[in-house]
Amino acid sequence: MQNSSWIPFFPEQASTFAWQVDLLYFYLIAVSVAFAIPIVAAIFFFIVKYREVEKFATPEEIHGSMVLETVWSIIPFIISMTIFIGGAIVYFNQYTMPKDAMEIYVVGKQWMWKAQHSTGQREINELHVPVGRKIKLTMTTEDVLHDFSIPAFRTKADVVPGRYTYLWFEATKPGRYHLYCAEYCGLNHSGMVGWINVMEQRDFDNWLAGNTSSQTPVEMGKDLFENKLGCASCHAGGANQRGAKLEGIFGKEVKLVGGGSTIVNDDYLRNSILNPAAQVVEGFQPIMPTFKGQVTEEQLNALVAYIKSLTPNAAATTGAPAAPAPMGN
Amino acid sequence: MSTHDHEHHAPGLQHQFEDMKQQEESVSIGMWMFLVQEIMFFGGLFTAYLVFRFRYPLAFAEGSNHLDAFWGGLNTLVLIVSSLTMALAVYYAQKGNRNLQVIMIVLTMVFGSVFLGVKVIEYTDKYNSGLVPVTGWNKRTTEADLKGGADKKEKAFAIPFIETRAEAAGGEHDSHAKKPNPHGEFQWNYGSALVDYGLKKEKETGKPFLTESEKIGYFSNGVFDPDKYRDKIRLFYFIYFVMTGLHALHMIVGLGLMAWLLWKAWIGTFSAEYFAPVEMSGLYWHFVDIVWIFLFPLLYLLGRHFIH
Amino acid sequence: MQTQDAISAGYGGDKPSYLTNGSTLKSWLLTKDHKRIAIMYLISVSVFFFMGGIYAAFIRLELLTPASDLLETATYNKVFTQHGILMIFFFLIPAIPAILGNFLLPLMIGAKDLALPRINLLSLYIYWVGGILTLYALMQGGVDTGWTFYTPYSTTFSNSFVMAVGLGIFINGFSSILTGLNFIVTIHTMRAPGMTWFRLPLFVWAHYATSLVMILGTPVVAITVLLLAIERVTRVGIFDPAIGGDPILFQHLFWFYSHPAVYIMILPGMGVISEVISNFSRKKIFGYEFIAFSSIAIAVFGFLVWGHHMFVSGQSIYAGLVFSFLTMVVAVPSAIKVFNWTATMYKGSISYDTPMLYAIGFLGLFLVGGLTGLFLGSVGLTVHLTDTYFVVAHFHYVMVGGQVIAYLAGIHYWWPKMTGRMYSEFWGKISAMLVFVGFNLTFFPQFILGYQGMPRRYAAYPEEFQVLNIFSTAGASVLGVGLTLPVIYFTHSIIAGKRAGDNPWMLPGLEWRTASPPPTENFEEMPVVTWEAYEFGEENGLDIESARKASGPSVPVQA
């Protein structure tokens, strides 16, 4: 998140109700300070002024004061009611769904966000939205609870299996904002993150039309692999690796679960993306979801090209029509 | 280690108390507090029951129709009588009448055992009819078993009340025929009469009869989905087994208490001065009975036969 | 020390103390003495506290860097879950009631023991069984569901030892139910002659309120965890959305207990603070009735606000508003307490002994914890803040800044009574300072992180959050030192501490009018109470003149 705010460590305001939430926040800080300072001052004053001068002294008894008790019951109550009302108004704005919104469907699953626009585009761990338009998300999950949280928009909502929950926002400035899963969802909870891309309407239209790409297949595949499809969260190596290691795999013979083996070639890669459970490499669980319907043929080719590029000289061994594979990616 | 100072104390008075009155008061408040926590314990279950009852009334009524109100009613009667004998046991303990006290405790235990016996009959029937909601925990039957139809052991033990009612209802319940269940799954072979009735009512009156959650819960794409419907009935049976199971567990604990009381009464511990254990066990016994008084109508009666 | 013993207002007598009355293992394990049971709780609860603390250390170390490098995510998930489970169920809930409450309640009301000593021993054993089962599960591989056990992750998806841990918590719950039951009975029936309800120390009132919550709330979570365990075994149940069950119902049932449980964790602490502030200011507590009834009010309202944990769970807007409103209402009694504590110090005679330092620290930290509670109760703001580090910071301010600090204040306050020995005042003060500073450094940055949106339970986080996380980890190391110090100087105190005398601070409470440590029967003869709570004058049988003369090293001289 680019931090352009003038207060250090303050999140960006990027939705229509962000300022309301912030205003409430500052009001509460003001109330807190107004409460805390007199109390802390009184405590310090008392412990200095009335410190023990004689051991086991018996100061005069004071039993209490009905007037004081009433005052300091009623004043906090009134103030807490202003806080309640302020919060209620903001809450209404956040959770009353607008009628004229652009709808996007979101499905959470361990551990990725899948979004589908009403025009059919699908995205994973990314969401492209136009600036200045109300967006309504209709959300559910395939497995456990998740929570779609966008701090820059000051909103979030749980995503619950077996039912739909809703979230809306209107972004106020273009940019790239963090998307988090805020409800603990298991192993890779902290990897269930993504980006909200807020674009000008024109750019968004272009994006919808699909002509955003001037990349080579390998670059495009790398982008898909690491960002858009989130393949890297399982296949990128390191301690969390749950998927097969892809570096240097192309052209090799691999053993399969349930016996047998196969040569990793273009067809095997393609089938493994579309129908992952069919031929699983030995030592791995069949946990990969299918990407059928989520990747276009063009993207599929790009992915295969990228995976090939992870094996030096792979292009030469098969002579497949791929873009020149840059080394040392 | 603190020791009892028995020399100048009344029998049964514990070291921390000054006199019997204080001890009895303490024990009695303690027991009531325990019952309060028991109420909260069962309260969680009743909440769960109510939530789903309001969500899926038809499925719950359907599930309820396949419990036998005769056995449930019999058990209610048994428990009420056992409460009476329990109260009499307390009465005779107070009177210091050892023999009648022992007899009443024995009677209470007999009624408690009858209750549990009936529960065994009911559970067995559920087991045989594939109504235990857990996969693999039902009787495994194959096509051959059903065709042969000669499982004598089952015939002897199970009380086939579901079949009886099906016959009484006439020929429209063809789907009641037993089906093979090789994996011991939860089965629902008894059709969807209540949902059909609800849909008919909706058509006739033009008013919604099914709840919103039922429309989502029983149908897929607007078409009745027997599997989804079965799952809701399965929820009913889950709640039924947990509630009656925990209640039965309380009964078993109660029988243990009675056995201890019986021993104490036999050796003549209790007298007009000291009978608090009988009284406290009595409170517990009555509480367990009262839980059943709520369970019986909620599980067996509510929504029953509302078609007629 | 003979003079000291002579001046104590004398219900003690010459009987052997509870510590020396029998030294065999059996005399401890089968004791019915509330004081011995309290000591056994002290040891077991401390073990759990330090285990939970080690987990906390791992959490802070892992969060030093943005990537999940020290611990794998799988391990991290288990670590924070187990930190939560051990700290909440096995430390925070039993800490003050089972240790201090057990030890002091009978002493404070002038009873020989709790009303139901065998039940008391039983609840200790239940605690052990629950604890050992949980530890066994942790050793087998642990649990990774978060301490909240949200379904359906916990029922269907987690491959960890949910069942065993759930059972451990279920069993442990009955320990706290029985303790609460025992306290209520004891307060009702065991008060000494003259000890009327409004002469009870506020510590007793706080425990009465706590016990109500234990009895009314714990069974609900017990049945909920039991249903969860059944669902895990049978693979079918009412929380399973696949067959029409409802995962949100779990949250309702869980928070119906677990929100009031927060008050189980803070009310006894408030009781301790009332005692310490009043006694170390030598001043009658300001607004006794208001503090007493605000405890009861908190206990009652505490049952009506569980939904404020579920503002973003998809419950209806109107439910959210109602719960937000009630949350604001429940803030008022807490505010009343803070005002009264402050006013109590007015025109007092305030000494800066270690317990008082902790109590003043409590006031500051609880103030922050309480005020940030308003942020989270304000529903529009919570939508942004919930499930972020703001929440983590808030509940640590209340739980650690509140309950743990109050527990430490209480242990330091009653240590001379429990052991008959004094601890090092110097190191006590150092520890109080370190805990205060370390705590603030650890958790204050987390408020800012939370507002920036850093989600909780993340093993890896974006780089812009690193600076504040480094502050937090640095603070945690200071806090760790501050919390370890007492173990050292308390151990030293048992071995070589100065004798404390029966009433080192010349305080009027009944617990100070018997020997230190007290005899098994607590009082040689039945005390008769003729004074109101918190009256410090000589007319109530406190021989202050001779105490002044005799007061030597056992009463610290101020710097």
Structural notes for this entry:
Chain A has 2 domains: about 1-210, Sandwich (Immunoglobulin-like); about 215-320, Cytochrome c-like domain (Cytochrome Bc1 Complex, Chain D, domain 2). Chain A contains 8 helices and 12 strands. Chain A has helices at about 20-50, 65-95, 200-210, 215-230, 230-235, 265-275, 295-310, 315-320; strands at about 100-110, 110-115, 120-125, 125-130, 135-140, 145-150, 155-160, 165-170, 175-180, 195-200, 255, 260-265. In chain A, the strands form 3 sheets. In chain A, strands 3-2-1-5-8 form a 5-stranded mixed sheet, with no helix packed on it. A 5-stranded mixed sheet of chain A has the order 4-10-9-6-7. The two termini of chain A are about 25 Å apart. The model of chain A is unreliable at about 315-329 (pLDDT under 50). Chain B has about 300 residues and is mostly helical. In chain B, helix 1 runs antiparallel to helix 10 (about 225-265) and helix 2 (about 55-65) packs across helix 10. Chain B has one domain (about 25-160, about 175-185, about 190-300): Cytochrome c oxidase, subunit III, four-helix bundle (Four Helix Bundle (Hemerythrin (Met), subunit A), Up-down Bundle), CATH 1.20.120.80. Mean pLDDT of chain B is about 85; it is low at about 1-5 and about 150-175. Chain B has helices spanning about 20-55, 55-65, 70-95, 100-130, 145-150, 150-155, 160-170, 195-205, 210-215, 225-265, 275-300; strands at about 220, 225. By secondary structure, chain C is mainly alpha-helical. In chain C, helix 3 (about 35-60) runs antiparallel to helix 4 and helix 9 packs antiparallel against helix 10 (about 290-300). In chain C, about 70% of the residues are buried. The model of chain C is unreliable at about 1-10 and about 555-559 (pLDDT under 50). The chains are: A alpha+beta (about 325), B mainly alpha (about 300), C mainly alpha (about 550). Chains in contact: A-C, B-C. Chains A and C meet through helix 1, helix 2, strand 7 and strand 9 of A and helix 4, helix 6, helix 10, helix 11 and helix 12 of C.
